[in-house]
Prior knowledge:
Radius of gyration: 17 Å
Number of strands: 6
Distance between the termini: 54 Å
Shape: globular
Order of helices and strands: HEHEEEEHE
Mean pLDDT: 78
Amino acid sequence: MVLIFAWQTIYSLLTKRLFSMFKNLIKNIGTLVVVGKWNVHVFAPEWVKSNIFEGEEMQISVAFPAGPYQFRGKSFELTVSDNRLHFELLLEEESAKIEAVEALRTILRLLIQTPVTAFGINVNYLTDADMSGFFPKL
């Protein structure tokens, strides 16, 4: 009971404040990662198409013998494994980033019983600074 309440509180904070907390970062989002104990069998192609990509055309890839599963739409690619969800953005438009965050919110709402241990946003930065001396030569 305590774990369910804690997760519902975390979900509530993520869904209500995600955009406000990261409004400055959303321009630079490269990937979203959610670490947890995901049941990959829930992510059947029909379920993903109707709940995540909402009927949009998507491509499906599976690394044999047992995953991870990749679902690719117009805006992002979702990779599902038993320990993480990984959203890779395919477009730089803000609408694509919002679609990925909304897909994540949908997954968290529908699979609220899933134990989640970490949430991460990887950001991309472009710079025209000279970085030649920053990395050692191999």
